[in-house]
Specification:
Length: about 650
Amino acid sequence: MPHRFKTAHWATALPLLALLVLVFPAGALRAQEPDPQTIASTSPDTSSDPVADAFSEEIVVTANRVPSPAETVGSSVTVLGREEIERRGQTTVLDLLRTVPGLDVAQSGGPGTVASVFIRGGNSNHTLVLIDGVRVINNSGGFDFSGLRADNVERIEVLRGPQSTLYGSEAIGGVVSIITRRGRTGFHAGLDARAGGLDTRDVRLQADGGTARFDYSLSFADRRTDGVSAASELRGNTEKDPASDQTVSGRIGLGLRADGRLDLVLRHVDSDSSLDGFAFGVGPTDDPNFTQKRRLSVASLQLFQPVTGRWNLRVNANAQRDRSTLRDPDTEFNNAEQDSRLGEISAQSELALGKSDTLIVGVSKERRKGENAGGYDESLDVDSAWLENDWSWRERLYVTAGARHDRYSRFGDKTTYRVAGSYLLPGEWKLHGSVGTGFRGPSFDELYFPFAGNLNLRPESSEGFDAGVERSFHDGAVVAGITLFENRFKDLIGFDLTTFAFANVKRAESKGVEGSLRLRPRDGLEIEAAYTYDDTEDRDTGLQLARRPSHRLSLLTAFEPVKGLTGTASLVAVQDRIDSDGTEMDDYQRVDLSLEYRLRPWLQPYVLMQNLLDKDYEEVSGYTAPGFVALLGLRLSYD
């Protein structure tokens, strides 16, 4: 399918962002300089953790088996740090992800409705989601972002390309990793309340503190909104679908001998939402009695302990449960109860073979359990082992090579590999690249769903590479980069209309380019731009892959027009998409704006405006994307 870069459709949005950049000449979105207790991760060269002093965007946690300086990472990764998360003021992780290059967002309606992300052309269930290192998946093998809030989140890392060598199944297209905040020295507390459009009421309470050996971070959030009609308002649906969610999260950390650390991390999400139905021949339509209750719980106990000056040990115990109940007295097939559970224990050894060579060996044992009321109640075991070597030469060349073997009790073994590297050249040049393989094991629904499940399914698999160059100018005031990528997927699982069951019937490919530009033209102003061109193809039909845009542009700027008034403005423009039936989908532009005034050191009123231009569009055909929404808020803090 030919792709056309229809810039005229963006004409209303681009001048607005340019105006904001020119009008607001100060106030940058800068990396956070956190408390020394922020992180205590693994050091490859010494028993003391080199990143224990800071947890800034210069350290990447997810891209290798040990935290690594950003300049040494060969994979494509985007980091959203704590200060950016706070400054943008977005309530959900989903809205923060909209500006990440190579990542696309699709939500089936307003707040509380099913929301997915796609990375570099992969399916939504090709993105592995980690919350504090715990994989979170449901019985379909994917993850619904709708109830995942940004409160108490320290940072978000998005790792693009096949990453199964690091994380096993589901990391076939990429990884989204969410990391909870750690407590700071002393005692700190805050109250954040906002209200406004869609009759939204949102309150968050937060407290954190610590000493030299102990720290804690606790957060409670409650949101309620009348929402919009999930079924498209543009097609005549008018019944609003309200939603509410409550989130409790916390982290407790204890310092151990020799710079060791023990962390307990907990998160629980309790959400209720109204949904709409589907009528054959009509599409999504109002359904006043269709509701969903969802309960997501995540827990992790993490031990990091240096054993000697050259050897570190890490042991993790993780658990996750995702329960969903659908109720509709008017439509029988809308009723369902699903329960997904996961438990995992892992151990990892990190041995410094030399000053510039680290050998990492690890094993894990995992038990998954999936239940669909009246359909199936099954479990499977996963045994995994991995090997990684991190090697560098003269502080210029950095290479990471690894392999992983996963054994599943239901469909056998899978081995994956990954090699990534970066090379630093004089003149602030960086060359980087990676090549690797990924896979996704069949989900419980695909294996066991009544009449459609297939126990003979093979894992989906992928091969991918990327290569890019990055250049920094004027001591980091300008950073520009470009990356070429290609992913090939095979044995994709779909519904076979000849057998009316799931089968390995699809192949696909995705190739394109990601470009990025970060500007700090003066002290106090930062502008970030990213563009992605993605040429996707279903290898069996020759069509573009559904809901993956060919063109995607994002702009993000932070500013301070007068002392004490800060804000951010973002633009996301999406172009050239088709739906699963081949029909063209909406091009759209979304502009968000947040402003905050520091009235007192402990008092900050603010405003958040989403879809500022009130654009009518649909991220998923037949489902409403909300129009202009403004929220007024007040933030109180105690330090």
